[in-house]
Amino acid sequence: MRMGVLTSGGDCPGLNAVIRSVVHRAVVDHGDDVIGFHDGWRGLLECDYRKLDLDAVSGILARGGTVLGSSRVQPAQLRDGVERARGHVADLGLDAIIPIGGEGTLKAARLLSDSGLPIVGVPKTIDNDIAATDVTFGFDTAVGVATEALDRLKTTAESHQRVLIVEVMGRHTGWIALHSGMAAGAHAIVVPERPFDIEELAARVGERFSAGKKFAIVVAAEGAKPRAGTMDFDEGAKDIYGHERFAGIARQLSLELEDRLGKEARPVILGHVQRGGTPTAYDRVLATRFGWHAVEAVHAGEFGMMTALRGTEIVRTPLAAAVETLKTVPDARYDEAGVVL
Ligand code: F6P
User: Fold this and answer.
1) Separation of 14 CA from ligand 1 center, angstroms?
2) Where is the Phosphofructokinase domain positioned along the sequence (predicted)?
């Protein structure tokens, strides 16, 4: 068989592990041909690719980013995008496409699959918000990076008796905020799923100082928002792809909290550091399993599907189920943490 693999959307630790695993399973075990498209869907739309053999994936397991490059280009953005993709798949004699990506990429994968192309998706995002899989690779790495940062920030916050508001990634969901905040013992967490009341947040942090504590750490998911009418709030502008470019919840909260509490407050934005660098062992293993199972799905002729983790098993689930809703954090999980507003 001949298959094409691509990585699309925001990069994520573990992408290279999937690419390597696809090549190992397909080329070594099945004797298939694998090509890699450059920069996500752009490579497919412009027929920009290279052959992937064992040499091409040697030494990439532990490397962050993606050796194939990524972009946010989606076939549906171009008037003839779907037709072009179909034409190139036919010209290249491909039996399958394996797109590795998040919500936007999997929506595009579904569109192409509905148009008749043989697609097996692999979910990825540090945000962990893709429905139909219990976990996405990249999440564990991002939580580890954020937790280490929070641990470090505690000592400087304490030295200066400050409130530090630490902004972590999470556009629509608070998975990274919840897990890193719990792991590091944050004093308050604000998340997109639960619009917060600034007075309640200030009271929570204020109580800590009243109890004699010298510092406080607030974790804010970048997509967290105040309850309507409770605080002046700049939502930020969208980028050229219509993607949120956040206005800095940490910066805005630091001003509000400093005013209300009379304590020095500083914003810390962890940003893309959460996405860069080497994946954890957990993410490498999950990514490797997804790659192996994607190739098996291709050989079984099960298209229009995505690999997913259910409990400890890797299963195949329809792409449609993966893109219908986002996987938000259940209320009970927030309640367990005890510090989520
Ligand atoms: O979806 C992954 C993610 O890292 C989000 O957490 C974040 O909001 C977004 O991508 C950032 O995207 P970009 O790299 O385009 O700024």
Assistant:
1) 16
2) 2-298
Task: Write down the pLDDT at residue 52.
Answer: 98
Domain annotation for the chain: domains and CATH numbers: 2-138+279-322 (3.40.50.450), 140-275 (3.40.50.460)
Concatenate the DSSP letters of all residues of 197-252 into one string: -HHHHHHHHHHHHHTT---EEEEEETT--BPTTSS-----EE-TTS-EE---HHHH
| Active-site entry in 33, 127, 129, 140 | 127
Q: Is residue 170 annotated as involved in ligand binding?
A: yes
Q: Is 266 annotated as a binding residue?
A: yes
Compute, in degrees rounded to 10, the torsion defined by CA atoms 70, 150, 311, 192.
-70
Question: Among this protein's residues, is 283 annotated catalytic?
Answer: no
Between CA 6 and CA 28 the distance in angstroms is 19
Q: What is the CA radius of gyration of the chain?
A: 22
Q: What share of the chain is helix, strand, coil (3-state, %, to 5)?
A: 40, 20, 40
Contact in structure between 51 and 19 (CB atoms under 8 Å)? no
Ranges of residues in the chain whose predicted pLDDT is under 70: 247
Strand-pair partners of 53: none
Residue 103 CA: nearest ligand 1 atom is: 1
pLDDT tens, residue by residue, 212-269:
999 999 999 999 999 988 888 887 777 777 777 776 899 999 999 999 999 999 999 9
Q: Which atom of ligand 1 is nearest to the CA of 245?
A: 16
Q: Is 222 annotated as a binding residue?
A: yes
Residue type, 52: L
| Cα–Cα distance, 131 to 292 (Å, whole number) | 21
Q: Can you give the pTM of this predicted structure?
A: 0.94
Q: Specify the residue with its C-alpha closest to ligand 1, atom 14.
A: 10
In terms of C-beta density within 10 A (0-12 exposed, 13-18 middle, 19 or more buried), how is residue 336 classed? exposed
Return d(Cα 30, Cα 57) in angstroms, integer: 17
Nearest atom within ligand 1 for CA of residue 241: 15
**ipTM for the whole complex:** 0.95
pLDDT score, position 247: 67
